[in-house]
Amino acid sequence: MLQLRPNCECCNRELPGDSADAFICSFECTFCAACTTSALKGKCPNCGGELLRRPRRPADKLLKNPASTERVYKPEGCKKRVA
Ligand SMILES: [Zn+2]
Ligand SMILES: [Zn+2]
């Protein structure tokens, strides 16, 4: 099951479990759509993997299987890629 991390690692923006704006790599490094397309160009700065849109978990499922509340914020990795 996906952790559904609550925020973007680059800009710390909120990414709730039912957000259409969240992108993840295979390790679930999590980013918002804006950072994914501009700063990161679709590539995870931590592992080099591709970033794909995170499937949304419907609100009723989030009640039983809540999203992770553990925030990961690593803006350093994102700045490196801004060319
Ligand atoms: Zn972001
Ligand atoms: Zn990654």
Task: List the main descriptive attributes of the protein structure presented here.
alpha+beta; 10% strand; 3 strands; 83 residues; binds zinc ion
Strand content: 5-15%
Inertia-based shape: elongated
Give the N-terminus to C-terminus distance in angstroms: 35 Å
Q: Report the C-alpha radius of gyration, rounded.
A: 12 Å
Q: Which residues form runs of ≥5 with pLDDT under 50?
A: none
Task: Describe the 3D structure.
This protein has 83 residues and is an alpha+beta fold. The protein contains 3 helices and 3 strands; from the N terminus they run ββαβαα. A 3-stranded antiparallel beta sheet has the order 2-1-3. Strand 1 and strand 2 form a beta hairpin. It is elongated and about 40 Å long. The site of one zinc ion has 8 residues, from strand 2 and helix 1.
